[in-house]
Design brief:
This protein is mainly α and 78 residues long.
């Protein structure tokens, strides 16, 4: 709202119910951080990402299997 609509920090802070200085810090951080640049992942974040990617692969395989099983049983009962 402050950045995209060029509204004043005090009015936006009141509207969304946060402290003016907090909003000012957020806006400053947003404006000083280069767009599209994210900090590198920590070791624990990388490990969690690997776990989640493995879980997604397993769930996709299960979904594919269940779809094939449902199609098989649907064709058997016709």
């Amino acid at each position: 709202m402050v950045v995209e609509e060029s509204r004043a920090i005090p009015s936006v802070a009141r509207e969304i119910g946060v402290n003016e200085q907090t909003l000012r810090n957020w806006v400053h951080g947003y404006r000083t951080t280069p767009a599209g640049v994210e900090p590198p992942l920590t070791l624990s974040e990388r490990a969690r990402l690997r776990e989640l990617e493995k879980e997604v692969r397993e769930l996709r395989l299960e979904k594919e299997f269940l779809g094939k099983a449902a199609a098989f049983f649907a064709s058997e009962y016709r």
